[in-house]
Amino acid sequence: MIEILQRVGFFPRACVWELTLACNLRCKHCGSIAGSKRPDELSLDECMRVAGELVELGCRRITLSGGEPTMYPGWHEVGRRLVELGARVNLISNGLTWSTKHIDQAQKAGLCGAAFSIDGFEKEHDEFRAPGSFVKVVRAIDLSVAAGLPVAVNTTINRINQGQLKSLRQFLMDHRVFAWQLQFATATGNMGQHKDMVSPPEDLLWLVPQIAELCRINCPEFKVYPSDDIGYFGNPEPDLRDADTALPFWLGCRAGCQVIGIESGGDVKGCLSLPSSMLGEARFVEGNVRQKSLREIWNRADAFAYNRLFKEAQLGGFCRVCRYRDVCRGGCSWATYAQGGGGNENCFYCQVVKHRRFELLAEEPTDDEIRYFHGRAPGAASAAGGQP
Questions:
Q1: Residue of 56, 48, 7 whose CA lies nearest to 295
Q2: Most buried of 31, 57, 240, 356 (most Cβ within 10 A)?
Q3: What digits encode the pLDDT tens for the residues 368-382?
Q4: Long-range contacts made by residues 203-207, C-beta under 8 angstroms, separation at least 24?
Q5: pTM of the predicted protein model
Q6: Which residues lie across from 223 on neighbouring strands?
Q7: How far apart are CA 259 and CA 58, in angstroms?
C-alpha cells in the first residue's frame, strides 16, 4: 500500500495543530502530558507565518488543539487566518471555561465548528478529568448549539466507560451534537500511570463490532467516526471506514504521508499524538519551523521514514506474520509505540486469531497466523465469547 501512496505523492491533507500545551485540566489519559505551556511556544506572528506555509503545502483540514487551545491568546486570529487562506478549521476544547465570548470569536473567525471531549456520563467523565467538568462541558455544548455553532464530541474509550457507548450516542443526539469521534485510551503520557483504566485487548472482540454497529446506524443528523486506532479487518471493518471510500478497509497509518502535526514549540511530527520531548522522545520529530520552512521539513528525502520508507522488517509480534501486514503496516503508529513497538495487540484481527473467534472473519486465518498463537491450526473456532 505504501507504494501507492508514494506514487500519488505525499501532501498533508489534514493537520492537528497544538497552539499551546497550557491546560486547565490534568486528564488521566492525556498523551501530551498537558498542563504548563512550553517555554518556547510560537508567537502569534510565527503562527501566522506557519499558517501560510501549511495551506501553501495543500492542507485544507486543520484542527486547533492543545493543551487547551483557548488558553493561547490569539487562537481565533490563527483560525481566521487559516480560513481566509481557504482551509476548513475547527477547534477542540475541554469546555471547562467555554463561554459566549469563545463562541463569538469562533464564528467571527469562520470556524466550521467546535469539538468537545466527553468521556462517559458524569461519574465516569469526572473521574477521568476533574470533578464538575461534565456539567461544564455539557453547558458548553448547549451554548454552542443554541448559538448556531456546529458541535462534535470526542470520546476516549476506556475500561470504566466502554459499556456506555449506546447510551452516550442517544445523549449526544439529544443535545444536537452532529458528529462523534471515538478512540481508545492508549497507555502513554498520563495514561501510562493509569494502565488499569485501559480497555484490555480481548474486549475488542465485542467493542469493535459494537462500534461498527453504531456506524451502521449513522444518519444525516449524527455520524460516528472511529479513530485510526480502531479496527482492523474482519467482518466489522467496512462499517468502520468512510462509506464513500472506494476501498472500505484500513489502508495503514497516514502520519507523514497525508497527515501532519505541529507542536506549540514549532516541532513537526507526522501525527500530533506521536510522542516527543514530553516523553523524552526525538525519533518522530522531523524538524522545527523556526529552523526550516514547513515545506523543507515535509519534502526532506528521508522525512517520516517510519511510514514513507516502510519495510515489513520493521514489524514485530503478530504483525510480522499477519496476512494484511503490507497494507496495514502495524496499524496506528501511536498505538504500536505505546506497546513497545513490537507489534500491535490492540487490533481486532489479532485478537480474533488469538481467541479463535473465526466466525468474526470472512475467511479463516493463514496457518502462520494460527501457529503464532496456538502452535498448530485448530480444526474449528472456539465457543463464542460475548459482551459483559
A1: 56
A2: 240
A3: 999 999 986 555 444
A4: 203/162, 204/346, 204/347, 204/348, 204/351, 205/348, 205/351, 205/352, 205/355, 205/357, 205/360, 205/385, 206/385, 206/386, 206/387, 206/388, 207/157, 207/162
A5: 0.91
A6: 179
A7: 11
